[in-house]
Amino acid sequence: MRKRTVLSLEQALSLSYGTLRFVHAGWRVIRLEATPTPGSRTPGDPNRYVGKLLAESDRRSYFVAPNVGKESIALNLKTEEGQRLLRRIVSELPVDVFCCNTLPRRYEGLGIDFETLRRCNPSIVWAGLSAFGPECPDRPGYDPALQAELGYMTLTGDPAGPPTLCGVPVIDLKAGDELYAQVVSALLEQAETDGGAKRIDVSMARAAVSWLQTTLPLLDMGAMPNEVQRSGNKHREFVPADVYNASDGYVYIAIGSDRQWQYLTSIDAFAALRRKKWVTNEGRCKSRAEIHALMGKTVSELGVSEVVSSLTQVGVVVSEVNDVPGVRNLPSIAPELGRVSFPEGRDVYLPPSAIAGDAVPKTFAPPPRYGEHTRAVLAELGIADKDVDDMAKSGTVAEPSPPASRS
Question: How big is the CA angle at 76 (ends 204 and 130), to the nearest 5 degrees?
Fold first, then answer.
């Protein structure tokens, strides 16, 4: 597939992560951000100003990972001149894919709606990401609130504790991945058909509920309450599968079949679990508490390395429970990490691409400053520097402010 140009009116995490997938594919991604409102000291994406100061004030730590390797332009889409510039960019660069994650009710007013952009680029793939889709054009959404509304918090955490957020913003990331997949699918369809424009609407809510594969259908299958509620670290269906405290750390042991149970109980240290009534998962489910207690006692008398080594040798799924620094240093992960270098010499290591391959980049340009590429992109349209200066004075476009002091 040839390299494409993506123009994305984006802020926050979900869409920014989705378009990062295109950066990983080697495509050109241009972030489109709003011009400053009067008196604003933090123009553009609010995530630019969250976290530790790394470089200029508009490139703080929370903004970095999803936005490396991108460009940034700032246009005032509330004006006709700004919308005219947008249409020129879409048609003359040209732009293959346009993405946005603003409220659907704002599409037409900003001149970013599918019909408008299709008229100036008949082959564009248009992708809108919103909390609940165009059917709910006024409803905003953030990952934690969506986790609460869509059952994720009810399914996460200790059964005796309160509803709990997942440790990563899974709905944001799921929706971004979904947008990426649907755009690639649309481009493939274009290549095999007439090449006409395509519209994609990604609902964060639908994307999130699509992941309730192991719970939602159980409602019509006589599910017990524990099957659709929080279960902590225990698996709802397989026994035993849980985190156990070894003498020097935590391990996760997952028995996913009766054969794996045979492997586990073949180890002398786990001899106390050799009972006929437990040879099937059905039988083990009837003795959950007893089995977990015996597992806990056995593991507590062993070290993490001893548990991992002995269970791995017989084919049982087991893992040390790592913290984030431990994950970064895993032999299977460390060589695959991405990296971005900031001008002052700081290197930041990034999560790896979801896929492997020689074509996947591992080094990236720093995330762009707000409006950093406005002038360069307009120059590609043949717009002279003097005209860009006039547009900046009128508020039609914006460029970076002078570097702020690091305080």
Answer: 5
- Residue of 45, 172, 387, 389 marked active site: 172
The helix/strand/coil state of 220 is helix
Query: What CATH number is associated with residue 315?
Result: 3.30.1540.10
Q: Tell whether 103 is covered by a domain.
A: yes
List, as one string, the DSSP characters of 255-305: --SHHHHHHHHTSGGGGGG--GGGSSHHHHHTTHHHHHHHHHHHHHTS-HH
Which range of residues forms the domain containing residue 110? 5-210+335-398
Do 133 and 171 belong together in one domain?
yes
Residue 218 within a domain: no
Q: Is residue 136 part of a domain?
A: yes
Domain count, the chain: 2
Residues 257 and 187 in one domain: no
The per-residue pLDDT string of the chain (407 residues; one tens digit each, 9 = 90 and over) reads 678 999 999 999 999 999 999 999 999 999 999 999 888 889 999 999 999 998 888 999 999 999 999 999 999 999 999 999 999 999 999 999 999 999 999 999 999 999 999 999 999 999 999 999 999 999 999 999 999 999 999 999 999 999 999 999 999 999 999 999 999 999 999 999 988 999 999 999 999 999 999 999 999 999 988 889 999 999 999 999 999 999 999 999 999 999 999 999 999 999 999 999 999 999 999 999 999 999 999 999 999 999 999 999 999 999 999 999 999 999 999 999 999 999 878 899 999 998 887 788 999 999 999 999 999 999 999 999 999 999 999 999 999 976 443 33
Answer yes or no: do 128 and 150 share one domain.
yes
**Active site includes 390?**
no
Q: How far apart are CA 309 and CA 295, in angstroms?
A: 16
